[in-house]
């Protein structure tokens, strides 16, 4: 392995950092709006974990993780599709970068953006958190592990979407019909125990559900499924998707015709 | 003879289009090699396969002895490509663009060489300008710079002078010549045939995915026997319509086998009652050869 991929990682990080207004500030504000609207209308009306956690406190980790996931996806997918459409992807196809190096650089940069935005959302929403919100925080390492794995998965999905899409609207379709439903139906805004059995069952097929549930476990020590199960599902998904992506890159699918 | 680029039985189809239909050629180390051909002949496709941007359907290609698929790392280290399309990354400045490109090849501390490239390409005062703010010709120069940052032994230029002004064209060629003289192998495609005639040692002509000529430039020019006549007249005599190779308004160009045919041509004008106002003999240039070869190959 040469150090070429570190330059690619640095370039990818710089790329979103240079437009931090859109790539960091805007999603933080979006998450804040969600928090204000949902916590204001639902606090005291929705019971989560049998009333052991207030709704706003429950919502905050959900919104943080949702931001981590969406921004990780946005970073790798938009970078790749822009490079493909403007043609400057050749600058990374010409050098001797291996599929693993390209994969690593794009996914780590996506994780970087996801975690920075997630961190931003966390700091801003803390302001609105109920007193004693952080007094607990029993398992921060679980939280961190799920944030890292979740952003890696979404960064990888973004890479797959970017490789597959040939136009911006195809990418938007991927985002609207795959990523958005999976995030919204993952329990960001509710605990799946409040869903009818059918939807509860269906949620268990959604890997995003495990990411958010495991992430939240770190905050409250409470979760819908045991965190080790979530870790297994999320870790397995990350591994599977990574292998698929590496195979696509190896084959040159849609990138090296 | 060391071979810088070797192409064997190379095939590539895009759906029904056979972009490359069995190409064989060798470019020797240190050569200034011309790759000519009309639009769609397959030049860019060949270069893309050389650079690993496109996968071949069949055949083998190597750069400095490294197979472009099996030993892609070494092959790509040995190759610098100036692409035909004017592409750039609008997020970055000229210097960042060059630095990143060097970095992708694992090179650090390249600022001195980058300064030299910038100076040679007349971009020193644009080093901190955003790529987006450059004119087309300047963007093209940055592309040349990007192809050179890793000091490749083989440099491929796919129509580097399209859209570049005369001044830069001259300085670009001086720079490329210098690179060639210091041992770099150069492969050039261009539609400006006088450029190829001036610069290239050996020339391959491609048409519809096949090599239709592959010769030393001198052999190509001298192999062109016969005479080209330029006549200013409203029409060509019917008997000589087949010898008319080019027409620019009233100016007609004929390819004749020898001077005896010239006499017959003039006689045909006289008996046909067609008046001509001007007559000149033309030296054979690459354009004549090109047109003749392309005409014959169809
Ligand atoms: N990605 C592609 N998809 C479909 N067809 C392609 C593709 N790339 C090239 N072709 C076709 O392959 C043939 C060769 O194209 P190529 O770009 O290699 O020609 P060229 O010699 O570089 O022409 P020009 O002088 O115009 O640059 C053309 O018929 C072209 O339409
Ligand atoms: Mg071309």
What do we call the CATH topology of the domain at 224-296 in chain B?
Alpha-Beta Plaits
Structural class of chain B: alpha/beta
Q: Could you list the spans of chain A in which at least 5 consecutive residues all have pLDDT below 50?
A: none
Tell me the quaternary state: heterodimer
**Strand portion of chain A:** under 5%
Gross CATH architecture of the domain at 224-296 in chain B: 2-Layer Sandwich
Number of helices of chain B: 10
Structural class of chain A: mainly alpha
Number of domains of chain A: 1
Order of helices and strands of chain A: HHHHHHHHHH
Helical amount of chain A: over 70%
Q: Taking Cα atoms only, what radius of gyration of chain B do you get, to the nearest Å?
A: 22 Å
For the sheet with most strands of chain B, the description reads: 6 strands, mixed
Order of strands across the widest beta sheet of chain B?
Answer: 6-7-8-3-9-10
DSSP helical segment count of chain A? 10
N-to-C CA distance of chain B: 33 Å
Please state the overall shape of chain A, judged from the principal axes of the Cα atoms.
globular
Kindly estimate the percentage of residues of chain B that lie in beta strands according to DSSP. Answer: 25-35%
Largest interface: A-B, 28 and 31 residues
Radius of gyration of chain A: 19 Å
